[in-house]
Write a structure and sequence with these properties.
The complex is a heterodimer of chains A (519) and B (520). Chain A has one domain. In chain A, 71% of the residues lie in helices and 3% in strands. Chain A has 20 helices and five strands. The longest helix of chain A is centred in the middle third of the chain and has 33 residues. Chain A is globular, with a radius of gyration of 23 Å. The longest helix of chain B is centred in the middle third of the chain and has 34 residues. In chain B, a hairpin with a 4-residue loop joins strand 1 and strand 2. Chain B has one domain. By secondary structure, chain B is mainly alpha-helical. Chain B has a two-stranded antiparallel sheet. At the A-B interface, helix 17, helix 18 and helix 20 of A face strand 1, helix 6, helix 7 and helix 8 of B.
Chain lengths: 519, 520
C-alpha cells in the first residue's frame, strides 16, 4: 500500500481580469447569451424589439469601451489574449462593420414578407409548414444572438495570444456564420447548399489549423505566441515540425481570408447566403482573420520570415491575379463582389508579407476601409429586387443610374473605392499598403499587384457602365424602398469611404500609433 | 487661404451649387455655371497679376499644409510660369465652353447615338464641367507629387461621365476606352510613385513627396530609369503620344464639342505638363538617357497624326489626329533639352489649346446645325454661312501654324531647338508642317468651297453668341502671334530652372536665338 504524502495542493491561481480591456468582448458575448435567454423566455411579439436593443446596445457600448481603452493595453486572462493597439484598432473596425451589417440585417421593408431570413429555418423549403410560417409573419429572431456570438469571436480572434485561444475564437466566429449562411428567406436550397459547403470546407480548414498548432507545440513546447517566437529565434536552423506547423496553420487562416488556392468556397457562399450576412461575413471575417494572421506572422513566426515569405509571395500573387481575372467574366453582382474580395485578400497579403510596423498599420487601415465599403455595397445589392427576391444578374442593373441616381452613385463610389481610384478610401489604403510593401523590399510584388489592380479596375468600371450608360430594362427589377436601417448603413458606408479618401489622417494616425503587437 | 486654393475651390463650389442647389430652372443652372466659371477666370487673372516675373524663386504663391502626416504627404500648391500659362488657358476656355455649349445637351439629344439612348441631364453636364475645371486647376498647381497624382487620377471620373453620358455615336465605347487607357497609365504611375516615396524616405530620412524637396534627389540609376518610365508612360497616354494614342480619336469623335475642347485642349496638356513638371526635374539622368527614344516617338507621332488626319472622314476624329501630330511637336520641344525647344513647347501648349478650342467650337456649331460630323456631307458652306466658313478657315490656319498665329511662334521655337541639336532632326520635323497645310486646306476645300450640298443649303450662319465666343480666342492667338513676349517672359524663368535641374545647357550654335518678343 502506497501512502501518499499529505501535501497541500498548490492553490489555483485565478488570473487577473482587466475588465476595461475585456469589456468590449465581454459585453458582446454577454449580450449574445442574454439573447439566447430572450429566445427562450420572452413572448414572440416582443422578441425582435428586445433583440435589436440588445444587439445595437452591446455593439455601441463595446465600441465606446474600445475607444475608451485606446492607448492602454496588455495581456489579459493569463496571457491567453492580448489587448494591444492593433487588437483594439481591429476590434473597433469589427464593431463598426458589425453595426452597419446589423442595420442591414434589421431591414424589414424591402421584402414584402419580412426580413432577409427564413421565417423558420427548420421548415423544409417549399413545404406547407414554410408557407404557413411565412404567412403568419414569423421572424427567426435567433439570428441576433448568433450574430453577436460571431462578432464576439471576431473580436477575440485578432487578440488571441496563444494558438488554442485563437482556435476557440475561430470556431466562435465561424459556427454561427455557417448557420446564418443557410437561413436565407428566398432561394433557400441555394442558401442551404452554400451553408453546407461553407461548413464542410470550414471544418476541414479548422482541422488543418489545429493540426498545425499541434506541430508547432511539438516544436516550441508552448502554444503561447511569444513563447513560440522565442523558440523560433533560439533555433535558427530549419525544423520540419515548425515549417509543417506554419504551413498548416497558414492553410487554416488563408481559407478564412479566401486566398487562392483556398478560395473556392467564397463565390458560392457569398451568392447563397442572405445578403446582409454576406456583407457581414465578407467584411468582418476578413478583418478578424487578417488581424489574427498578422499577429501570427508578426509575433510568433517573424523569426522565420524567410521560410514562409516565398510561399506567401506566390499565394499573394496568385490570389490577386485569380481574383481579378475570374471576376472579369462574372455576370452576377454577388459573385463579382466575391471574386473582388478574393483579389483584395491578395492585396492585403502584401501588408502581411512586409512584416514592418508600417505594413501592419497600412493593412489595418485597408481592412477598415474595405470592410465599410463592402457592407455598404451589399446593402445596395439587397435593394435591387424582383418578385422572386434580389435580382443580382448584372444585366438587370441596367440604367440604375438613371432611375435611382443616389443609390447607383453610392454603389459606384464603393466600386471606385474597391478599384482604388483617388477621392475614395480604397485609394489611400492601397497606396499605404503598396508603399509599406515597397519599403520592405517587395518592389516586384507591388508591380504585379499594380498590374492586377488594372485588371480589377476593368470589371468595376463595367458595372458603372451598366448602371449609368445603359437604358433601364422595361420590366426589369424594381428598387425596394428601404427603411432608415439600410439607408443609414449605406449612407454611413458611403460617407466613410469619401471622408477617409480625402481626410484619412485621424484613422491612419490611430493605426500608426497602434502598429506594434505586444508579445 | 491662398489665392491658388481659392482658385480651385470656386469651381468646386460652383459644381455643387449647379448640381444640387440651382433649383428647377435649367436656364438658372447654366447661368450659375457661367457665373462661377467667370469668377474663376477673375481669380486666375488676379493670381497672374500677383505673379512676380523678376523673382528667382522657382515656385510662387506657395501654400503648404500638412495633409496626411503619417505618410509624409502635404497639401502644397504653387505656380511657376508654365503652370501659370496653363491656368490661364484652362480658366479662359471653361467660360467660353459653357457659352459655346449652352445648348449642347439638348442638341445632342437629336444626334444619332449607336446605343440609341437618352442623353443625360443639363445640370449634370455643367456641374461636371466645373468639377473638371477644379481638378485641372488642382493638377496644375500641385507641388506635392501625391496631390498631383491624386487629382490626376480623380479627374478621370468627371471626364468619363462627360463622354459616356453626354457624348454621341459610340460614346460608351469611347468612354470606357479612355478610362481603361488612363487607368492603366495611372496605375503604372502609382507603382513609380510608391518607389519614389520610399526612395525619398530612404535618402531624406522621412517620407515626403513635396516636389521642391525631391528635386536633385540622388537615386540608383536602375531605379531612376524604372520610375521615369512609370511617370512617362502615364503622361504619354494622357498627352497622348503615338503608339498609345488610340483612345484619342474615339474620345474626340464621341464627345460633345465642349467636352472635346476641355479634354484635348486642356486636359491632355496635363500629360505634357507632367513631363516638364515631374519627369525632367525628378529624373534628370533618365530623361537625358531616353530622350532619343522619346524624340523618335514624337517625330513618328507628328507624321502619323498628320497622315491619319488626311484620311479621316469624320471631322471630330480628324481634329483628334491633328492634335496627335501637335503633341509630337510639344514632346519634341521638351526632349531636345534646349531653352528654345522648351519655351516653344510651353507656348505650344497654350497655342494648341486655343487652336483646338477654335476647331472644335466652329466645327461643333456646324455639326449641331446639320447633325453630321461627316466631311462628305458638307460642301460650299461658304455661300450660306460665310462667317462660319471664315472662322473655320482661321481655326484651320492656327492649326497649320500660319505666321501671325501664336502656333507659328511656338512651332518655330521647337524646330529651332531641334535644329540646334541635330539639323537632320529639325529638317525632318519641319516636313510635318507641309502635311499640316495639306490636312487643313483639304478639309477646308471639301467642306467650305465647291457646290452646295443638299445638307448645307440654307444653313444658318453663326449667331451673335457663337461669334462672340470665338472672338476672344482668335484675338489672343493673333496677338500672341505678333507679340508673344508676355508669355515668353513668364515661361523663360521656368524653363531656365528646368534646364538647370536637368543639368543641361543650350548647345553652342551659330544660329542666333530669337530675341525676346520679336516677331519671327
Amino acid at each position: 500500500m502506497i501512502i501518499l504524502p499529505l501535501v497541500e495542493p498548490p492553490p489555483i491561481e485565478l488570473p487577473e481580469l482587466d475588465w476595461l480591456l475585456l469589456g468590449p468582448m465581454a459585453l458582446v458575448l454577454g449580450a449574445a447569451v442574454v439573447g439566447v435567454m430572450v429566445e427562450a423566455f420572452a413572448p414572440r411579439s416582443s422578441r425582435r424589439t428586445i433583440q435589436l436593443v440588445l444587439t445595437f446596445g452591446s455593439l455601441i457600448g463595446a465600441f465606446v469601451l474600445v475607444v475608451l481603452a485606446a492607448g492602454s493595453g496588455g495581456p489579459v486572462m493569463a496571457s491567453a489574449a492580448v489587448i494591444d493597439g492593433p487588437a483594439l484598432f481591429l476590434q473597433g473596425g469589427i464593431l463598426l462593420v458589425a453595426l452597419l451589417a446589423a442595420l442591414t440585417m434589421a431591414e424589414r421593408h424591402v421584402d414584402p414578407s419580412g426580413d432577409a431570413f427564413a421565417a423558420r429555418a427548420s421548415a423544409m423549403p417549399g413545404s406547407e409548414d414554410e408557407r404557413q410560417f411565412t404567412a403568419r409573419g414569423y421572424l427567426q429572431t435567433e439570428v441576433w444572438p448568433l450574430f453577436l456570438f460571431a462578432v464576439g469571436g471576431m473580436m477575440l480572434f485578432p487578440a488571441s495570444n496563444d494558438l488554442l485561444t485563437m482556435f476557440v475564437a475561430l470556431e466562435i466566429m465561424s459556427l454561427p456564420l455557417y448557420l446564418l449562411a443557410g437561413m436565407a428567406r428566398r432561394r433557400r436550397l441555394l442558401s442551404q447548399e452554400s451553408a453546407l459547403k461553407y461548413f464542410l470546407l470550414g471544418a476541414f480548414s479548422s482541422a488543418f489549423f489545429l493540426y498545425g498548432a499541434a506541430l508547432v507545440y511539438g516544436f516550441a513546447g508552448t502554444v503561447n505566441l511569444g513563447g513560440i517566437a522565442d523558440a523560433v529565434t533560439a533555433q535558427p536552423q530549419m525544423s520540419g515540425l515548425l515549417l509543417g506547423g506554419i504551413a498548416m496553420i497558414a492553410v487554416g487562416m488563408l481559407f478564412k481570408v479566401a486566398a487562392v488556392p483556398f478560395h473556392s468556397w467564397a463565390p458560392d457562399v457569398y451568392q447563397g447566403a442572405p445578403t446582409p450576412v454576406t456583407g457581414f461575413m465578407a467584411a468582418g471575417v476578413k478583418v478578424a482573420a487578417f488581424g489574427a494572421l498578422l499577429r501570427l506572422m508578426y509575433v510568433a513566426f517573424a523569426g522565420s520570415e524567410w521560410d514562409w515569405r516565398p510561399a506567401f509571395w506566390v499565394i499573394a500573387a496568385l490570389t490577386f491575379f485569380v481574383g481579378s481575372i475570374v471576376a472579369l467574366v462574372q455576370s452576377d453582382i454577388k459573385r463579382m463582389l466575391a471574386y473582388s474580395s478574393i483579389a483584395h485578400a491578395g492585396f492585403l497579403l502584401l501588408g502581411v508579407i512586409a512584416v514592418t510596423p508600417e505594413g501592419l498599420a497600412a493593412t489595418m487601415f485597408y481592412l477598415v476601409t474595405y470592410g465599410l465599403a463592402t457592407v455598404g455595397a451589399f446593402g445596395v445589392v439587397m435593394l435591387v429586387r424582383d418578385d422572386t427576391g434580389e435580382n443580382t444578374a448584372m444585366e438587370n442593373w441596367r440604367g440604375l443610374g438613371r432611375t435611382h441616381p443616389w443609390l447607383a452613385g453610392a454603389f459606384a463610389l464603393f466600386l471606385l473605392s474597391f478599384a482604388g481610384i483617388p477621392l475614395t478610401a480604397g485609394f489611400i489604403g492601397k497606396f499605404s499598403v503598396f508603399a509599406a510593401a515597397a519599403a520592405a523590399g517587395e518592389g516586384w510584388l507591388v508591380l504585379l499587384a499594380v498590374l492586377a489592380s488594372a485588371i480589377a479596375a476593368f470589371f468595376y468600371i463595367r458595372v458603372v457602365v451598366v448602371m449609368f450608360f445603359s437604358d433601364p430594362v422595361g420590366d426589369g427589377p424594381a428598387v425596394a424602398v428601404p427603411s432608415w436601417f439600410t439607408r443609414t448603413a449605406i449612407a454611413f458606408g458611403a460617407a466613410a469611404t469619401l471622408v477617409l479618401g480625402i481626410f484619412p489622417q485621424p484613422v491612419l494616425e490611430w493605426a500608426a500609433q497602434a502598429d506594434i503587437f505586444i508579445r | 487661404m491662398g489665392t491658388l486654393t481659392i482658385l480651385g475651390l470656386v469651381p468646386l463650389i460652383g459644381s455643387i451649387v449647379v448640381a444640387v442647389g440651382a433649383g428647377p430652372s435649367l436656364k438658372r443652372a447654366k447661368q450659375l455655371a457661367l457665373l462661377f466659371a467667370l469668377i474663376t477666370f477673375g481669380v486666375a487673372v488676379y493670381a497672374i497679376s500677383q505673379f512676380d516675373r523678376s523673382s528667382t524663386e522657382p515656385f510662387q504663391l506657395v501654400e503648404s499644409h500638412q495633409w496626411i502626416p503619417t505618410l509624409g504627404l502635404t497639401y502644397s500648391v504653387g505656380v511657376d510660369g508654365l503652370a501659370l500659362v496653363l491656368l490661364f488657358l484652362a480658366t479662359l476656355l471653361v467660360p467660353l465652353v459653357v457659352i459655346a455649349g449652352w445648348n449642347d445637351v439638348e442638341d445632342t439629344a437629336e444626334l444619332p447615338s449607336s446605343d440609341g439612348q437618352r442623353p443625360g441631364q443639363v445640370r449634370g453636364y455643367f456641374a461636371l464641367i466645373l468639377l473638371l475645371e477644379a481638378m485641372m486647376i488642382g493638377v496644375f498647381v500641385s507641388l506635392d507629387v501625391f496631390l498631383f497624382y491624386f487629382l490626376f487620377e480623380a479627374i478621370l471620373i468627371p471626364v468619363y461621365f462627360m463622354i459616356g453620358r453626354y457624348g454621341t455615336g459610340r460614346r460608351t465605347y469611347a468612354a470606357v476606352k479612355f478610362l481603361i487607357y488612363s487607368l492603366v497609365g495611372g496605375l503604372v504611375m502609382l507603382a513609380a510613385l510608391v518607389m519614389l516615396w520610399f526612395t525619398a524616405a530612404d535618402v531624406l530620412g522621412s517620407p515626403t513627396l513635396f516636389l521642391p524637396d525631391l528635386i536633385g534627389l540622388p537615386m540608383d540609376a536602375g531605379l531612376e530609369n524604372l520610375m521615369f518610365w512609370g511617370f512617362f508612360i502615364a503622361f504619354a497616354i494622357k498627352a497622348p503620344l503615338w503608339p498609345v494614342h488610340t483612345w484619342l480619336p474615339d474620345a474626340s469623335g464621341s464627345a460633345t464639342p465642349g467636352t472635346a475642347v476641355l479634354l484635348i485642349g486642356v486636359l491632355d496638356k496635363i500629360g505634357t505638363y507632367g513631363m516638364m513638371r515631374l519627369c525632367l526635374p525628378l529624373f534628370p539622368e533618365a530623361s537625358q538617357t531616353f530622350a532619343p527614344v522619346i524624340i523618335a516617338i514624337s517625330v513618328i507621332g507628328i507624321f502619323y497624326g498628320a497622315l491619319a488626319a488626311i484620311g479621316q472622314t469624320d471631322m471630330k476624329r480628324l481634329f483628334g489626329y491633328i492634335s496627335l501630330s501637335h503633341f509630337g511637336f510639344i514632346t519634341l520641344g521638351i526632349f531636345v533639352f534646349t531653352s528654345q525647344g522648351q519655351v516653344g513647347a510651353g507656348l505650344y501648349m497654350l497655342g494648341h489649346g486655343l487652336s483646338t478650342a477654335l476647331l472644335f467650337m466652329v466645327a461643333g456649331y456646324m455639326i449641331m446645325r446639320r447633325k453630321s460630323a461627316n466631311v462628305a456631307d458638307y460642301g460650299g458652306v461658304v455661300k450660306p454661312a460665310p462667317v462660319l466658313a471664315g472662322m473655320f478657315l482661321i481655326a484651320g490656319l492656327t492649326a497649320l501654324a500660319l505666321p501671325g498665329m501664336s502656333t507659328f511662334v511656338s512651332e518655330f521655337l521647337v524646330l529651332l531647338g531641334a535644329f540646334t541639336v541635330n539639323p537632320w532632326l529639325g529638317a525632318g520635323a519641319t516636313l510635318g508642317i507641309v502635311f499640316a497645310a495639306l490636312y487643313v486646306l483639304l478639309l477646308y476645300q471639301r467642306t467650305m468651297t465647291g457646290p452646295e450640298t443638299d445638307q448645307v443649303r440654307g444653313m444658318p450662319d453663326l449667331n451673335l453668341r457663337e461669334r462672340w465666343v470665338l472672338a476672344p480666342i482668335i484675338g489672343i492667338v493673333v496677338f500672341l502671334g505678333f507679340y508673344p513676349a508676355p508669355v515668353l517672359d513668364v515661361l523663360e524663368p521656368a524653363v531656365a530652372n528646368t534646364m538647370e535641374w536637368t543639368g543641361s545647357s543650350d548647345p553652342e550654335t551659330e544660329l542666333t536665338p530669337v530675341a525676346e518678343g520679336s516677331q519671327p
